[in-house]
Design goal:
Blueprint lengths: L3 E8 L3 H8 L17 E3 L2 E6 L2 E7 L10 E6 L2 E12 L2 E9 L6 H23 L12
Protein name: SRPBCC family protein
InterPro entries: START-like_dom_sf
Length: 141
């Protein structure tokens, strides 16, 4: 039984651009399935809908290290941590995410969650790589 799983993806954009996206909690609804489209900020507090309840979400403050960890506080004794890092690699960036399996999660549920997480990283890649500047046309064209 796996209690943690780490995955990575290479994003063909500069590290500082990737870090800027990861440091902006408002952008997570665009790509991070583990937070989902219900991510909201009210009076500086982030939260996400979890069934009938809203769970608080805490994000690591913007930093110069590419660390974008966050935590979903689903109850007084229940927190789900996501370790998220961006690391420069040549002209690109590698994003590494570690997910921790909840104790009550079955193998089948865990596999579904990990598949959704990998798809989320792919959405992040597509989102960021779509910003790629188009080459200028030559003046003689």
């Amino acid at each position: 039984m796996s209690w943690a799983h780490t995955m990575q993806i290479v994003i063909g954009r500069p590290w500082d651009e990737v870090c800027a996206t990861l440091a902006d909690p408002a952008r997570y609804a665009d790509w991070a399935a583990w937070l989902g489209p219900t991510l909201r900020c009210r009076r500086g507090e982030w939260s996400v809908q979890r069934g009938p309840l809203r769970a608080k979400v805490r994000f690591t403050p913007r930093n110069g290290y590419g660390v974008a960890d966050h935590c979903v506080l689903e109850g007084p004794d229940r927190a789900r941590f996501i370790a998220l890092r961006a690391m420069p690699h040549e002209e690109a960036c590698v994003v590494v995410a570690t997910f921790f399996r909840p104790a009550e999660c079955s193998e089948a549920e865990w596999a579904v969650q990990l598949d959704a997480a990998q798809q989320s990283l792919r959405r992040l890649q597509v989102l960021l790589e779509a910003r790629r500047p188009q080459p200028a046309e030559p003046a003689w064209a």
